[in-house]
Design brief:
The complex is a heterodimer. Chain A is mostly helical. Chain A has one domain. Chain A contains ten helices and no strands. Chain B is of the alpha/beta class. The chains are: A mainly alpha, B alpha/beta. The interface between A and B is large, with 36 and 35 residues.
Chain lengths: 269, 339
């Protein structure tokens, strides 16, 4: 059997529990859509009370959706991987012939679909509640930016997940500390250009920064104070996606090697 | 690196695994020698047992053989492939099931869970589902195939884990304490099925770790006794029992035993093991230098006012062999290993 065929099957196999899980345990409808939306609602009312135009209200709603993605990348991927370790799944994943990469790919795939659903619900509910139109000017480019940003985000997520496994909960807690700074630096609720060029450039290491800026340009055109032109942001995102995919692969290999050499994933004393 | 041997499913040579752990930053690492120059060979088609108390190194050995841990030194080959240099080749040929495993996802049904694991081996879905249904029927879980795994009892879960281990039809199946925590009936079912599985197709090999004497005796063609990381004996259960035949063995059923009975001090008594019975009486297992010593023991008991309700001469057991080789009973060795 071709290793590619086995990898595809393994990825789909691992995506399956994440997909059916959303359907069987619907608590996420509250935790993953209502709560992020509540955060956005507060900002919507601030913008409305100041008489801000509709596209600023839409920023707040998109920020809520972006939060769902970030939470999924940082929290769900790493938490799931950590949980897999504690449940003994990780040991089994390490002795199956497909290797860890397709399994992580499946996790990402399942997570991406589940998150798309959450983000879609947040955007739809926010748009309907506040009567804010969300136009898309160039659907092809919009989807391309979105897809590349997803790859970059999940590459980052897998890198984080490996780090969490190697350094345990300390890394996890440290990452949680970065949650709010990431929301701020990525311009979840405002145009990132407001932070100044160099701060925005540094924040562009987080794929959400460029993705949000490009998507807002494609939705609101000249109304949005762009950081960089859309095509430049798309290529930068492609670079980030490649870099994070390579980093994810390297960190997985490193994790597996350390796990085998030092017994970090199996030592019980 | 090509395969080097077709005769053996597992070969290790001077295998050493050392753990270094730090309890706190700045402290010296604690060095634990989990495997100490382990050399053994398991032939293809063999049901091989690793018998030893907790902390003896059984699970570490399984982890090295299943590519989860690298050896510190020495070599290990599984299905002819080196576990350190060719882990991928090894993984394509093995499967592992551990006792008390809680792997998988509780939201999935039994059938879904098994399908998911089959995909990690690249088994086409129709083949996988047919195999899953067949194996579920064999272990008596077919009626529960659509039940969520979070709702399974310990015994049912372990049967599912066994099915997971058998799904890829491995050349070498590693079972790490597969019946631990199971009730008698579930453990018996699992043992019976595994025995029939290995006999079904020539060349299938099982490596079982256990600290249950009767399990090793019932299932294994050969048994290696592992103690403090070393293989201290390796042979068929019958040959190991013969090694213990230093004397003669009797089992007595007596009144309650309070430890004051003067049996151990009786000349010719090599060992006394006492187990309390549920009815308040005691079962006393005696290893004596010769049959005639029994008369002195019975005399001593009578003088002490202890009644003997039953007496029988028995063949030495694997437990007797273990005691002779390791120097203490399994329970004592377990207790010693528990911090």
């Amino acid at each position: 059997m071709s290793p590619w065929v086995r990898s595809v099957r393994a990825a789909l196999g691992r995506a399956y529990p994440r997909l059916v899980g959303s359907n069987r345990d619907r608590a996420w409808l509250f935790y993953d859509t209502v709560l992020p939306l509540l955060g956005s609602v507060a900002l919507v009312y601030v913008y409305r009370s100041l008489g801000a135009p509709d596209h600023l209200v839409a920023y707040a709603i998109m920020g809520g959706a972006a939060m769902a993605f970030w939470m999924n990348v940082l929290w769900s991927m790493a938490a799931q991987f950590y949980w897999d370790k504690m449940a003994g799944n990780l040991e089994l994943y390490m002795v199956v012939p497909c290797g860890l990469v397709p399994i992580l790919l499946g996790m990402s795939l399942g997570g991406a679909v589940a998150t798309l659903l959450r983000a879609g619900l947040i955007v739809a509910a926010g748009s309907l509640l506040f009567g804010v139109p969300l136009p898309v000017r160039d659907l092809g480019l919009f989807l391309a930016v979105f897809a590349v940003a997803l790859v970059a985000l999940y590459g980052l997520g897998v890198t984080f997940a490996s780090a969490f496994l190697l350094w345990g909960r300390e890394a996890w807690h440290t990452a949680n500390l970065f949650m709010e700074p990431v929301f701020l630096l990525s311009g979840f609720y405002f145009p990132v250009r407001a932070l100044g060029f160099w701060t925005a450039a540094a924040a562009s290491l987080i794929p959400l920064t460029l993705a949000l800026d490009a998507l807002r340009q494609l939705m609101f055109g000249p109304l949005h104070p762009a950081f960089l032109p859309v095509h430049v942001e798309l290529w930068l995102l492609v670079g980030l996606a490649a870099a994070f995919a390579l980093a994810a692969r390297a960190s997985l290999r490193r994790m597996e090697h350390l796990a085998r050499r030092e017994g970090r994933l199996s030592l019980r004393f | 690196m090509p395969k080097v041997s077709g005769e053996f499913a597992v070969e290790t040579h001077d295998l050493v695994r050392v753990y270094r752990t730090r309890r706190a930053r700045g402290t010296d690492p604690r060095v634990v020698v989990a495997l100490d120059r382990v050399t053994l060979s398991v032939r293809r088609g063999e049901f091989f047992g690793l018998l030893g108390p907790n902390g003896a190194g059984k699970t570490t050995l399984i982890k090295v053989l299943t590519t989860l841990l690298l050896p510190t030194s020495g070599t290990a080959r599984v299905a002819g492939w080196d576990v350190a240099r060719d882990p991928q080749r090894v993984r394509e040929r093995i499967s592992v099931v551990s006792g008390g495993e809680t792997s998988g996802y509780g939201l999935l049904t039994v059938r879904e869970q098994l399908w998911m694991f089959s995909q990690f081996y690249g088994i086409p879905t129709p083949v996988a589902l047919a195999r899953i249904d067949h194996l579920l029927r064999v272990v008596g879980l077919f009626e529960d195939r659509n039940r969520r795994t979070s709702q399974l009892s310990t015994g049912m879960r372990q049967k599912m884990n066994i099915v997971r281990g058998l799904l890829p039809d491995p050349e070498v199946l590693f079972l790490d304490e597969p019946t631990v925590g199971l009730d008698v009936e579930a453990a018996r079912d699992i043992r019976a099925y595994i025995r029939s599985w290995i006999e079904e197709k020539p060349g299938r090999t099982v490596v079982l770790t256990t600290h249950l004497m009767h399990e090793a005796e019932e299932l294994c063609d050969r048994v290696a006794i592992i103690h403090r990381g070393r293989i201290v004996a390796c042979d068929t259960p019958a040959a190991l029992r013969r090694q213990a035949a230093g004397g003669t063995f009797f089992v007595l059923t007596t009144d309650a035993w309070d430890g004051s009975q003067p049996v151990e001090a009786t000349p010719g008594v090599l060992r006394v093991d006492v187990r309390a019975l549920s009815d308040g009486r005691a079962e006393v297992r005696l290893q004596l230098d010769e049959d005639a010593t029994l008369l002195r023991v019975l005399g001593a008991l009578a003088a002490h006012g202890v009644r003997v309700h039953a007496l029988r001469k028995v063949e030495p057991s694997l437990e007797d062999a273990f005691v002779r080789i390791v120097g203490r009973r399994m329970e004592e060795a377990d207790a010693e290993a528990t911090p």
